[in-house]
Amino acid sequence: MYAQLVETGAKKVPTLAEMTPEEQAFQAKIDAGIKIEAKDWMPEGYRKTLVRQISQHAHSEIVGQLPEGNWITRAPSLKRKSILLAKVQDEGGHGLYLYSAAETLGVSREQMVDDLHAGKARYSSIFNYPTLTWADMGAIGWLVDGAAIINQIPLCRCSFGPYARAMVRICKEESFHQRQGYDIMISLMRGTAAQQAMAQDALNRWWWPSLMMFGPSDAESINSAQSAQWGIKLFSNDELRQKMVDQTVPQAEHLGLRIPDPDLKWNEERGHYDFGAIERDEFYSVLKGNGPCNKERLATRVKAHEDGAWFRDALMAHAEKRAARAGKAA
Amino acid sequence: MQAASNASKMIYLLRLGDSALVLSQRISELCGKGPALEEDLALANTALDLLGQARLWLSYAGEIEGDGRDEDALAFLRSDREFHNLLIVEQLNGNYAGTIMRQFLFDAWHTLALAQLTQSSDPRICEIAQKSQKEVTYHLRRSSDLIVRMGDGTEVSHALTQAALDQLWPFTGEMFTGDAIDEEMTAAGVGFDPAQLKQTWQTYIDQVFTVATLQLPRQDAWMQKGGKQGVHSEHLSYLLAEMQVLHRAHPGAKW
């Protein structure tokens, strides 16, 4: 899940009777499964929440290039290097669609990027963990992209048309990404003892951060209830996390890897795995900027942006010169 | 027509593959750090194209050698003295003007070189050149366009682009200097005489630099050489150290 703890501004989820006629008509469309398009009337809270959620998702794609980019130059074979380059390029492309989807809501990409750089906008906590070995490329594809897909498949059906459509395309690519991650893990587990140890170590470090991607339990959250009413959050954090665990445990077993959770156990009665609780302190701490790489990730993005200012200015200046020349010639 | 020896042909293929591989590696260093999102995408795309080409050239070089070395053995287990890339591609990324100027000067040569190789008497070389030509035509279109925009942009961008041209210029001479291997390949109809490309290259870059309001460096400037023969700048060894570290740490492992 690339969007965590998205604020809706709601103090209480309104009932139909408490809504204005415009809000009632809007809610009726959502309840009937009719997509909301950029030019349709929408409550201000819905618009703001979507801008927060979509831009947070876009920022996650962009910052998310860095931990994997860290291994492109050291990939152990040319084939793996090529696959990883293509994957990271896809992430950049996802960022582009998502910024465009958010722009339909009346906010510019510059504003969103400025908010990220100023620390006002979030990106997923997962990208603040370091990628220490090649096996982390496998674990990220398998677990992080796996978690992202679990969250994003329902978003293909979310109420806002431009976001839902962007998600359809993104999910197709994410599914390839997850398979390439799992494929890296398969190769490592078929390899030498050192490669197998590398794979287990990566799972040990990425398991809990991946489960934290779904956010804290939101059973009592007003924000989640409001987003559910608006059709932009279709399942609770806990439901999605359960799905992730249920899906991943058999895959780990197939690989011959041990999930680092002593409380993990199949519960016959529930038909699901029971598992330990995520460490809320760590989750909030990373979210607040204290993860191992928060400062570094943001500083890298800010530096790239600042170093590139003269280049962007040059492109604008050249375009203006061309327009002026065309004007004179006409 | 004399047949080319396998040893010479292998070096010839390594020159093509190593230039593509080293430039791809350099560009990959910029992943997620470009000046705009669109540039990040274009950089990754270019790196990916060049890497694909490098794999085809290196695989074929390994087959010609006949000692069982595949693309990975050639990429990860040779030292810098055994690499045969042009010096220009191993130069540091520098600022973005340097990155794009390096790309432009190389692309303008690369397009012409591949066009020659599509006429090779070796069908496999023809095939790789044809596939690569489509990609490189686009690389040149992009880098030419950016040179014009940066050169004829602001005062700052103009100065940076001119400085990048002046700095990289001494590495262009090597692209047109032939040696015994070039002669052997040309005589066998496998390759081409690099000196023949000079005039067309010069005319093309002159046109782009005129529109970009950039000043061409002196034609009689001193030119560096040695990359094709395995004598590199100090930069290459570091680039390879990073690229090869993981592969070399696990001898024989499959990934």
What attributes characterize this protein structure?
heterodimer, A: 330 residues, mainly alpha, two-stranded antiparallel ribbon, 13 helices, 2% strand, B: 255 residues, Ferritin, 10 helices, 64% helix
* Unreliably modeled segments of chain A: none
Which quaternary structure do these chains form?
Answer: heterodimer
Intertermini distance of chain A:
52 Å
Which whole number gives the mean pLDDT of chain B? Answer: 97
pLDDT below 50 for ≥5 consecutive residues: which ranges of chain B?
none
Structural class label of chain B: mainly alpha
CATH-scheme architecture of chain B? Up-down Bundle
CATH C-level label of chain B: Mainly Alpha
Brief characterization of the structure:
Chain A is mostly helical and 330 residues long. Chain A is built from 13 helices and two strands, in the order ααααααααααββααα. In chain A, 66% of the residues lie in helices and 2% in strands.
Can you describe this structure?
In chain A, strands 1-2 form a two-stranded antiparallel sheet. The relative contact order of chain A is 0.13. In chain A, strand 1 and strand 2 form a beta hairpin. Helices cover 66% and strands 2% of the residues of chain A. The mean pLDDT of chain A is 94. In chain A, helix 4 (78-103) runs antiparallel to helix 7. Chain A is mostly helical and 330 residues long. With 255 residues, chain B is mainly α. Chain B has a single domain (6-218, 227-249), classed as Ferritin (Up-down Bundle), CATH 1.20.1260. Chain B is built from ten helices and no strands. Chain B has helices at 6-28, 37-65, 71-76, 87-90, 96-117, 123-151, 155-168, 180-187, 198-211, 235-249. In chain B, helix 5 runs antiparallel to helix 6 (123-151). The longest helix of chain B is centred in the N-terminal third of the chain and has 29 residues, at 37-65. Chains A and B meet through helix 3, helix 4, helix 7, helix 12 and helix 13 of A and helix 1, helix 2, helix 3, helix 6 and helix 7 of B.
